[in-house]
Amino acid sequence: MKWNGYRWEKDEYDEKENQKNTSIGNPSNSSTTNNSSAMITTKEALRAAAIGSSVQKHGPTNSLAEWALAVTNAIATKTLVLKPKGLQSVDAIIALARADAAFQTNQLAKLLGAKEARAAQDDFISQSLKVDRVDASPFSLANFPSSSDKSTILFAIDKTLASESALAFRNFDAQESLIVPGSTVVQFVESLGFKVTEFDTAAIGVTPVTAPPKQTVKPGKAAKVAKEAMPVTAADESAIKIGIDVKKNEDFPSWYTQVLIKTEMMDYYDVSGCYILRPWSFKIWAEIKKFFTAEIEELGIEECYFPMFVSAKALNKEKDHVEGFAPEVAWVTKAGQSDLAEPIAVRPTSETIMYPAYAKWVQSHRDLPIRLNQWCNVVRWEFKNPQPFLRTREFLWQEGHTAFATKAESDREVLDILDLYRRVYEEVLAVPVVPGKKSENEKFAGGLYTTTVEGFIPTTGRAIQGATSHSLGQNFAKMFEITIEDPEQKGAKSFVWQNSWGLTTRTIGVMVMVHGDDKGLVLPPKIANIQVIVVPVGITAKTTAEERAKIYEYVDEVVKLCKPVGVRAKADLRDVYTPGYKFNHWEMRGVPIRLEVGPKDIAKNEVRCVVRHDGSSSQLAFINLAKTLPEKLTKIQADMFEKAKAERDAHVIRLEKFENGFVQTLDSKNLILAPWCERVACEKEVKDRSTRIALAGETADEKAPSMGAKTLCIPFKQPTENPVVPGTHLK
Amino acid sequence: MKWNGYRWEKDEYDEKENQKNTSIGNPSNSSTTNNSSAMITTKEALRAAAIGSSVQKHGPTNSLAEWALAVTNAIATKTLVLKPKGLQSVDAIIALARADAAFQTNQLAKLLGAKEARAAQDDFISQSLKVDRVDASPFSLANFPSSSDKSTILFAIDKTLASESALAFRNFDAQESLIVPGSTVVQFVESLGFKVTEFDTAAIGVTPVTAPPKQTVKPGKAAKVAKEAMPVTAADESAIKIGIDVKKNEDFPSWYTQVLIKTEMMDYYDVSGCYILRPWSFKIWAEIKKFFTAEIEELGIEECYFPMFVSAKALNKEKDHVEGFAPEVAWVTKAGQSDLAEPIAVRPTSETIMYPAYAKWVQSHRDLPIRLNQWCNVVRWEFKNPQPFLRTREFLWQEGHTAFATKAESDREVLDILDLYRRVYEEVLAVPVVPGKKSENEKFAGGLYTTTVEGFIPTTGRAIQGATSHSLGQNFAKMFEITIEDPEQKGAKSFVWQNSWGLTTRTIGVMVMVHGDDKGLVLPPKIANIQVIVVPVGITAKTTAEERAKIYEYVDEVVKLCKPVGVRAKADLRDVYTPGYKFNHWEMRGVPIRLEVGPKDIAKNEVRCVVRHDGSSSQLAFINLAKTLPEKLTKIQADMFEKAKAERDAHVIRLEKFENGFVQTLDSKNLILAPWCERVACEKEVKDRSTRIALAGETADEKAPSMGAKTLCIPFKQPTENPVVPGTHLK
Asked: Which segments constitute the Aminoacyl-transfer RNA synthetases class-II family profile domain (chains A, B) (predicted)?
């Protein structure tokens, strides 16, 4: 296969995106500061206290979200100043939280024992802390007037932050961040004489209200009525919303978090970077697993399980490889009360765990191929802000590790697996991806070449790496001495050819981001745990017991006919909830089809069918349901893919010259398809050039990322119209 | 349900058994010592060096195996003294290995760079180390004559031992063990001036030979011929055996290890206590998973995934509970190069991980029940000798965690799940178990009561805990504040009722131990990855290409007809192996049915069928195979269960009086069924009494364990003949 010169350009999602998260303080207000001479700045306070801190420079940022985006290797924080009610003798709470924490001020106040709280007035902040709200930090407590009573101020810190080794604080000009360990912050505040308490953000994640507003709903109009009855106002911090209360296009990070929490896909956990996968998301993973396991079994790949722990020696065997993971490796150093003589790593990936065994098992070509796969958890202790599903410290994945006698066999498998990854995204999750090859720069460390499927999130305009299938060449075989007798040359040894490939729970996050809408989740039928929800409607106070029984019986009939035709259906017969509440409940959770069964439908031997992803509705004849439901689900799956593909395609812009608006095109949420000569120097030049322009502020969008463009992949499917001339590149 | 007073008595397998492992040194030779006055004993050497050590007393032991059994909280070791060939200038190797290490002396020698090695003569040992072979230890190097050249001695240590914090060495009288950290041993030997090297036991696990002896085999007689051609002599250390070369009844620990390694179920790994689950065993786990998942889904239990890490604070919340696990918890304290501010535990079980979330999710009875299950890995860093599948530091399991509004619901589930565990053992693995309730003494720490299924290993006469289903009562709910509004009393809170239940990969080890025979593994059809292996036979040098094609075609037909009737069949068409080799290969791996297809069978439109578990053979008509094969598999499954059950039943002895040979009955590899009044004092008395007798040496079997009998469970199914009078107990 000849790779020629086209590529997709755009910073990858997993590198920098979605650290823009919602904040409760109002950081976009202002970045100007009333720098009075009496004021102690963050930096000065730190210096005065002579406490350990370091500075990370990153250029100007204009909002908390943008700043958080620029912070690397530390946890971006925000400081809230609250005036609580009902906490006797406490006048204000200074709370330090993660910059991306999504909770209501009031919930925090309650957690701390107050009845409720509101954000402190600007006056209060500037008088007590001597800074603007946007610049408040635990260090500004050093400005607190010595004449005032310190016991009236409570300093509260997210307990996961208290134990982090690197917290980032915005410095005044916001061109750099101060990095301080959590324990030092606590120590500093205590040394100033303030009370310190910890709180558990995990305990105040947004949870749905269980008792819904009661209402009577007419059949047919139910959805509309229900929606009107739901609270839709935006910023009422005292009420926890049932539905998603932000728009996907307006505040994507908050939308994403709300969708995951409110649909009960995910929940927070008190170890930073780790999340709970609840059944509503875990079942999606189970469906992906089912599909992929069946396919690789057909290829002759077997399931196994290798230990999670790896000795430092084995881990360090392949230098390039370990360099990529070393800063993120979690080490077990103690068992019970005893120190282990040698620390043991928790697997970040299993190459170095499996290959010593492969070396033992492989003696001759008859022991080949070895084709093993395992589904397991891995740990990568990243210091970037975590993001549910997309970047978590522990995650689930499958990892395949294979060894062949010849390069040809290994090359074939790399592509066979990549095509399965494409099918997981396109056929199972209805998410379009671009299969291609990574540049030398972006390939898997220690491998020969990396193939990838690249996804795209239209809302952010960013690409995201979907899954990768690596040819490791003979590199690991050389390190671990996995050899066979050379078939060509008697007595000589030859090294085996190896691949490794992995697909993670990230798939779920990508699917949510691509398909979700303002109402919440939209699930493609193939992975929907419930494909059809059946809701009885039209039951009022006047409905007789007999009529009600008839409706329930009909609902039951509908559900029963589904299983034999392979449709996963469920009836929502909860009698404490109104139909409107149920409609919202299942819409938010993304169930592909809702069937409503009311007296009028029954009279016509019909059910009302509402499709989640496009809102279309129709009447279906009961008699044909066993045929129409599977057909509808197939069509929904196809339609969702086509819709997502059309949207993605509209954002792929072909460019031959850099001057033709390269950076502006990226900033308009596009990917760029451009010729490339495959030289590293050219790749670097494009990155540098786009970075310079962004830094110089030449772009229209001031929120554009300040880092340059990078290559995503050389797509296997090259444009056939006006094909690129091999060797040419972006002018 | 009324528990009344019967119980099973016998030390549990998982507590003390199967630490008796094979050893290469000849420990049973002698326990007498030529204690000359010139000799420095182990203890004296340690004292002289003033290095850190402690003593564990355990009473007399008569062999290495027996001694290893008595060692707790440390790794039992053995010291080998080898005379290598081909290692220039090295006269002897003193090698320190795990007491249960199963490798050939020669393999070790090769690993260390020698051509081969034999055990040193007694003369050499007594002259150089001044001790008997059985008492050789690294410390006896202190006796090495100062006039001799120390550079001719190489000290080699299993690298996993070098990093262990507690190694056990037999002391001379073998009534106690010396406990020394691995690093101290190395330091001590170095301080004496000897060269020290490490070796990797994982690299010399027994592996099957890939190129078998060539032979011509006649059809029909193939099995016999092949067996004769296989090496069957016992102690030839220079040859690695293809088949199992010890008898199950003669050396059970070696037999077990060989079965696991040679059938490629398992392999060693270089982190102590962790093992590799290869496809041949992992597929058994997958079958168990499939059965259990389908059953609990029917009960309404959902799959999820909670993080692996738990903060010290959450872990310590329930005191009784954490006490049970604290000494075995693995702690992550570093990420990359940074120390974590607070250590994080790796889950030993997930009660304390899940229940804070349950507290958040449960507000009213409408949020109940919560019924979640996850399949995951857990870590319990035990210091007892590890045992593949039965006791490993990392293992796989499912853990169910549920919460209910009422005790009645929770009680029902405890038994529903226990019955599923019974069915996993009895219906899936064909292993009989006794369902019952644990005594107060033996229940899960922090719970209300524990139910269990208890298995039995006839070869050792020991019981083994199969799986447990716990009622946690309201204890955890109180600790984690999982409450609902009391349905009885408005405004009041009531705590939820919780259960937890788990089934581990131990199931696989139990199945191997119960069904395996001298030829190797015997798999019940339900979990056999290959249920039917089809082997072409009767192909000789005279066979024409046409005849050969006909045989292969017939084999292919046989395999093809299996899939549609749900039979997992495979043809072994490897042309480098003889039929005899293949017969042994698949017999050792436990495949339930072997079909042989040769010219004579084809002529009669038949296949020859050989059943693994009883060795019976018959001719089957090809035309009926689609019917007879599934029937045969069903019968094999039933027969294997009945056979195992009859054997178990024969070892359950009912006793009313202690004097009627209580200890002798246990020592004869039996379980005792005895009345019990359910008072803790009586349970303790029986234990003490049996311990005293064992210690006093009153029992016939001198290898009897020196610890007393303990209760296994109060069986739910009580004897109907001559039923026990409630309140009575063993006299």
From this structure: 282-524
